[in-house]
Design a protein that fits this description.
single chain, mainly beta, 8-stranded antiparallel beta sheet, 53 strands, elongated, IgGFc-bd_N, signal, VWF_type-D
């Protein structure tokens, strides 16, 4: 029996003379935030890329393992697909997805790709066709939410902005508060209306519109995954597909740094979404400004190389980078979408996915005083130019990663930093938030006889051992270490007791006394928080309970044993 530090609420449970202890006693779990990229359950929506579905689509998943003996199952309902792959620590597996996974049109779909693993993994989805491609980091179920705000590009395009809402394993009701007219399932819904959608398990709804859908709000009764982008947007070059999985409004941040592209001398666009009236201060190079932004809007900020953009808000905001295409040497590259992480989400270690055939780069944002400690693939970054970011304690730098597929690791031992990866090739480009793979267990201090593991996106201290002590009507006990012990009647025995000195744990003692000879009477005393709960069982099965505070509840368990629960309030 234990209690969290500072917690005074107490409970005691005795059921059918059976006591279960984890380690020495039942300790509270200690949880530390873990990377929101790592998880065991994912849904991927391959949204419409271009004007129509084609068989020469190249849809891929990059699956990276962080534990040995990791089994990953990839499935799709219609058309039927099920495959299993194995990954181990530090291994990345490329899985090709059939072109039938593409969602074409504005309707519901049964072809979401469901990914389940027995250990935490990270996942990147690539939606590629011969002249159009983009990629996104896929967030696991524990990072989903119930409220989102859509952003779609509103410049230089004549095709369709789009977004997709996907459910997990339960029916989910969704309300879409539209900021543009859409046609869904053959019916038109005007701007300002609320579109109700009922999703079945693992079903997705995709909405498209030629108008800007930015500011559209999604409210779901259960957590959902939301992907946004464009079928094929053109700005300065040919059109290109855009896709990005969004974070829920509850996960938005307040402080952002947006470095310029390493291969672009033209201006790009940064979309800032607000869910409430928000005061945003910005610094672009040496130019500073402040704006009060209205709720439910996506506001455009310009980014002109070689300047950086620094944003600070008094409420959570969503920041999406739109690289609008351009030219570098002999390469004409197309637009891409990329989520900008907030400074508070920076971490100690990142995985960078460099894609085959692209000029791959990584942009790094680190505290100026800590840049010397950054390592790329275990080697210190030496010949790299760090540029101070005006108005902040940070600097940024760029590093070329070549043209071949590889997964690079960038890390710092003590100082969290940000990382963005991107690449260009003829008529294509991509942008990715780097995958934070910091092991939260590395900085989690568990108690003795506990081990750290990742559960639902958190580092949790779990007990190494569970033991059961069972009493009977006779003078005998089955102990925690599986021994049978005979006792003498008339004596008081200590059944369980906390003998440690940890001040965060609550001392307790469980004592029992049985009558001599045939079973006549059985007395159990539980001492905890300065209280004594006495439970007396007399001949005939009647139970008397004495206590000095709180509430007693008595009931039966499935095995017909009696359960006595005591709750002493705050």
């Amino acid at each position: 029996m234990g209690s969290s530090p500072g917690r005074r609420k107490s409970r005691a449970v005795l059921w059918g003379w059976t006591m279960v202890l984890w380690g020495v006693l039942h300790l509270p779990n200690i949880a530390v935030s873990a990377p929101h990229h790592l998880g065991k359950e994912f849904v991927v929506a391959f949204m419409q890329n271009g004007l129509q579905q084609t068989l020469n689509s190249d849809f891929k998943l990059l699956i990276r393992g962080y534990s040995p003996f990791t089994s990953v199952t990839i499935s799709m309902k219609k058309p039927g697909l099920r495959m299993t792959v194995q990954v181990t620590t530090g291994q990345t597996v490329l899985v090709k997805i059939p072109p039938q996974a593409e969602m074409v049109g504005s309707k519901t779909f049964e072809n979401t790709v469901v990914v389940k693993a027995n250990n935490p993994i990270s996942l990147v989805a690539i939606n590629e066709k011969p002249t159009s491609a983009d990629s996104t980091v896929v967030y696991p179920l524990h990072s989903w939410g119930t409220e989102y705000q859509i952003v779609t590009p509103n410049v230089g395009t004549d095709r369709y902005g789009e977004f997709t809402v996907a459910a997990w394993d339960e029916p989910t009701a969704v309300k879409v508060h539209l900021k543009a007219t859409v046609t869904y399932q053959g019916q038109s819904y005007p701007r300002g209306s609320v579109l109700p959608i009922q999703l079945k398990p693992f079903q997705a709804a995709q909405l498209q519109s030629p108008a800007d859908m930015s500011g559209t709000r999604i409210v779901a009764e259960k957590p959902v995954a939301v992907f946004t982008g464009h079928t094929c947007v053109a700005r300065l070059t040919q059109c290109d597909h855009l896709v990005e999985q969004l974070r829920p409004i509850s996960s938005w941040g307040n402080t952002f740094i947006v470095p310029p592209l390493p291969f672009d001398t033209q201006s790009d666009i940064v979309y800032v979404s607000t869910s409430q009236r928000t005061h945003v201060e910005s610094q672009h190079g040496m130019s500073r400004s402040a704006r009060d932004l209205r709720a439910g809007r996506s506001t455009l900020y310009g980014l002109q190389a070689p300047n950086t953009l620094y944003l600070s808000a008094n409420a959570g905001i969503q920041v999406i980078f739109f690289g609008d295409g351009g030219n570098k040497d002999s390469i004409t590259y197309d637009p891409f979408f990329m989520t900008i992480p907030d400074v508070s989400s920076y971490c100690l270690s990142h995985n960078i996915f460099a894609l085959e055939g692209y000029e791959n780069y990584v942009l790094l944002i680190a505290k100026t005083s800590e840049v010397e400690g950054i390592m790329l693939n275990k080697v210190p970054l030496r010949n790299i130019m760090w540029v101070p970011i005006p108005g902040t304690e940070y600097s940024w730098a760029r590093q070329s990663l070549g043209r071949q597929f590889a997964v690079h690791t960038v890390e710092h031992k003590t100082s969290p930093f940000g990382a963005l990866s991107m690449g260009i090739r003829e008529q294509k480009s991509y942008g990715l938030t780097a995958v934070c793979d910091s092991d939260p267990c590395r900085t989690t201090q568990c108690r003795a006889k506990e081990s750290c593991t990742l559960e639902k996106g958190e580092a949790v201290c779990v007990h190494d051992y569970m033991g059961t002590c069972t009493g009977s009507r006779f003078l005998q006990y089955h102990t925690f270490d599986a021994m049978e012990v005979d006792i003498q009647g008339g004596c008081t025995y200590t059944v369980a007791k906390y003998c440690g000195a940890d001040p965060t744990l609550v001392p307790f003692v469980v004592e029992e006394k049985k009558s001599v000879g045939d079973f006549k009477e059985w007395l159990t005393n539980i001492f905890v928080h300065g209280y004594n709960i006495s439970i007396r069982m007399e001949e005939g099965g009647r139970i008397q309970v004495g206590f000095s505070c709180g509430v007693i509840s008595i009931g039966k368990r499935n095995n017909n044993n009696t359960c006595v629960k005591w709750d002493c309030g705050e």
